[in-house]
Amino acid sequence: MSVTRWQSERSESDSREYIERFDNLAQQGADLHGEARFVDAVVARGSRILDAGCGTGRVGLELARRGHLVTSVDLDPVLIAEARTHPELDVHLGDLAELDLGKKFDAVVAAGNVFIFLARGTEQTVLRRLADHLEPGGVLITGFATDYDYGVDNFDSDLAAVGLRVEQRFSTWDLRQWRADATWVVTLARKN
Questions:
Q1: Is the distance from CB of 54 to CB of 83 less than 8 angstroms?
Q2: pTM value?
Q3: Looking at residues 16-40, what average pLDDT do you find?
Q4: Distance CA 145, CA 43 (A)
Q5: Long-range contacts for 144-147 (Cβ within 8 Å, ≥24 apart)?
């Protein structure tokens, strides 16, 4: 198992602060469900969804509330402990580069900067693992910041290498048109 950037750049204290940050945002009434609305609009009712790099389970929980069957995976034990407080989710501790759940999904979502926190050089391996968990015609939906060393061009090459094709791309979760200078990229890729 390679050490991910999340593991090398974050501490247990950072994970606890992450949980607290989103709890505070929720208490302030912030809209925390843009990713879930996006995914929900793309998939059929009652879809089987893998929340890859689920963190606290925030996105997966909202998708479960919308009637989907959600399996959640993350490698951070602090965040996984928080995700496991939601009985609606089937939660697993694991590294996406080694993922093998033995089942297929209609959609995989990797919403919160998952790809920029992977171990360098494992991005294509992770994409292959995620693609292997998709049904034919299934979708991978990702979102990450564009100001890291793993950029959109690298991502697109890796998608193609594992049999996923870009179908839609946006600059935000609320469907703003993609621009090359955008600070965020949301991609919907489909399995061939």
A1: yes
A2: 0.90
A3: 84
A4: 24
A5: 144/110, 144/112, 144/113, 144/114, 144/115, 144/116, 144/184, 144/185, 145/113, 145/116, 145/183, 145/184, 146/182, 146/183, 146/184, 146/185, 147/183
